[in-house]
Amino acid sequence: MPAKLKTTLRNGRVSRQRSKGLTIMEVVVASMLLAVAMIPVLKALTAAHAVDIKIEERTRSFVLARAKLDEIRARALYSFSTDFEDPSSSVDGDYLCKVDGFPVDSRLQEVLKDIQVSVGYDDNNNSILEDSEIEVTLRTLLAKREP
């Protein structure tokens, strides 16, 4: 919307000059256009932030699962007969860890263990790692070694 023209009489001549500034209607329309254009940008930023948080949780869960698995491997060197299973334990603040053992061939039970470590963020703060909260699951075979 163009600015209003100002008509003045100067030295017997009619001259037209633009008034300086914007009308209130121009400001309102420009503000509305800017607001409408910003909505998709803000939605995209919000979605990107949510994805960033999820990636951070999964990365942290993976690091904690690897650390727990390394701890179990170290303990297995000195006490292989230990039952490493743990239904739910806190590993770092609101992150929980669950360790499960699976049966192996009966001929190999004395020298081999099948271990699974699951780690996730405790979303509902009940100190129990539920299937919906698991971010990372690592499974490995542990062989008995002599120290």
Give a summary of the structure in a few sentences.
The chain has 147 residues and is α+β, with helices and mostly antiparallel strands.
Structure description:
The chain has one helix and six strands. With 147 residues, it is an alpha+beta fold. Strands 3-4-5-6 form a four-stranded antiparallel β-sheet, covered by helices on one side. A two-stranded antiparallel ribbon has the order 1-2.
Keywords:
alpha+beta, 1 helix, 147 residues, 6 strands, Glycoprotein, Type 4 Pilin
Q: What is the CATH domain class?
A: Alpha Beta
The computed structural class is alpha+beta
Query: Strand count, sense and closure of the main sheet?
Result: 4 strands, antiparallel
CA-atom Rg in angstroms: 33 Å
| Tally of separate helices | 1
Across the major sheet, the strand order is 3-4-5-6
Order of helices and strands: EEHEEEE
Write the layout of secondary structure elements.
Blueprint: E1 5-10, E2 13-18, H1 24-78, E3 86-92, E4 95-102, E5 112-121, E6 134-143
Antiparallel strand pairs: 1-2, 3-4, 4-5, 5-6
